Amino acid sequence: MGRPLPVVVLPRAEQDIDDAIGRYLDEAGVEVAGRFTEALASAFALLVRNPGIGSLRHATLLALPGMRCWPLRPWPHLIFYLERERRIDVVRVLHGARDVPASLLGPDDAP
What we know:
By secondary structure, this protein is α+β, with helices and mostly antiparallel strands. The protein has a single domain, classed as YaeB-like fold. It contains four helices and four strands; from the N terminus they run βαααβββα. The chain has helices at 11-27, 30-49, 57-62, 100-105; strands at residues 7-9, 67-72, 77-83, 88-95. It has a four-stranded mixed β-sheet. β3 and β4 (88-95) form a beta hairpin. α1 (11-27) packs antiparallel against α2. The two termini are 27 Å apart.
C-alpha cells in the first residue's frame, strides 16, 4: 500500500465546518461541538486510509466527476471530497437537510 494521502480542507468546507461548530456551540455547548470536531477528525482519518469508500451518487446526479460523499455518522452532515493524485480535497461539509445539489453547484463551490 502506498503512502496515505493528506487531507486538504478547502476554504468553502472550512467555512461549513466553522458554521457547524458555531451552531453546536450556541445550541448545545462546548462538549457537543467537541464531539462534532472529533467525529470530523475520525472521518478524515478513515478517508485517508480508504479514499474510495464514499458514494459517487452526487457525482453522477450532478455531473461532478469524482465527487464522493461520506456520511458523518451519527451527525446529520455529509462530507464531499475529491480524491486527487497526491491529496484528498474536502470540498464541502453540508448538513443533510440542506439543498445539497444547490450547495454543491453554487458559484463559490467549484471544486
